[in-house]
Amino acid sequence: MKNSEMKNHNSLSQLENEILQASENELTAGERDQLEKKLAQYPKLEKVYHDLTQMPDISKAYDRTMLSSKKMDSNVSQLLEAIESEDHEHSPKSFENLSIHYFKRYALAASLLFLALTSGFYFSQNGLAENELTVEELLYPMEENESETYVYYLEQLFEQ
Amino acid sequence: MSSSNDEFKKQIPELYPRLHRAMTAYLAGSNVDPDDILQETFLKAYRSVDQFEGKSGFYTWVYSIARNLSIDEFRKRKHEKKRSTVPVEEFEIESDDFKSEDQKENVLILRKAISELPELLKTVVVMKTIDGMSYSEISEVLDVNEQTLKNRMFRARKELAGILDKMGVNEI
Question: Shortest Cα distance from B47 to chain A (angstroms)?
Answer without folding.
Answer: 9
